[in-house]
Amino acid sequence: MAVVDGEDDLTNIDWTFPTFENIIKCGYSKKYKFKGTFEIAKFQNGKPGYNKNWSQLIVPISIFRYFAYNIPVEQTLTQCKSIFPFCLGLKSNSNNTGELRVISENELVIVPLSKTTRYYVSNDGYYLNKVFDDGKESKVRKGYKVTVMNNYEEMPIEYRDINYLYYVRECYKIIDVVDTKQLKLFN
Question: Which region holds residue 44: left if phi is over 0, alpha if psi is between -120 and 50, else beta?
């Protein structure tokens, strides 16, 4: 197996700019089965599951390329030129809401969010919280800042200030578990 200019010979997909069609195409791979944490394309009854959670697809894509082609996850992450695989979703319901915590002119400003919010983890963003009706709060992506991306604006990926370290850590949380269990099989 080889990867040339970001395109692999297994799926013929250019992973430097993964499109929705490419992700779906990879999900139909006859050689690999993508399940659970490793699921790249989300299917329901053989069709794309638009009601499924498509959050941070760059993580399973990076893990796939790491195990299938021995490509460092950092390389996959930094070569990707589309923001969409980095995006996550936050859904609110009748007993909770999403809020951004913004410091403006030395004052805390709370920005309420819509029921469904798309965002990515960035270096220079804001903290995201989920606030429940009973007054409890939970931090979303604790310790990391996010940038809301409900309205897409065309711009080079370099200007988005993605926190690649967050996505690297998410990949290695899974890789370390898999590699450790694989090594134990041979001891």
Answer: beta
* Cβ contacts of 163 within 8 Å, gap of 6 or more: 121, 122, 123, 144, 145
Angle at CA of residue 62, ends 12 and 18, nearest 5°: 45
| CB proximity list for 148: less than 8 A, separation 6 or greater | 100, 113, 117, 118, 119
Q: Are 105 and 116 in contact (CB under 8 A)?
A: no
Identify whether 176 is part of a domain: yes
Q: How many whole angstroms separate alpha carbon 117 and alpha carbon 161?
A: 19
- Residues 21-36: pLDDT tens digits? 555 455 445 555 555 5
**What range does the domain containing 10 cover?**
3-86+160-185
pLDDT tens profile 111-159: 999 999 999 999 999 999 999 999 899 999 999 999 999 998 999 999 9
CB 69 within 8 A of CB 174: no
What's the alpha-carbon Rg for the chain, to the nearest Å? 18
* 112 plus 167 within the same structural domain: no
Residues 9, 63 within the same domain:
yes
Asked if residue 36 and residue 17 are part of one domain, the reply reads yes
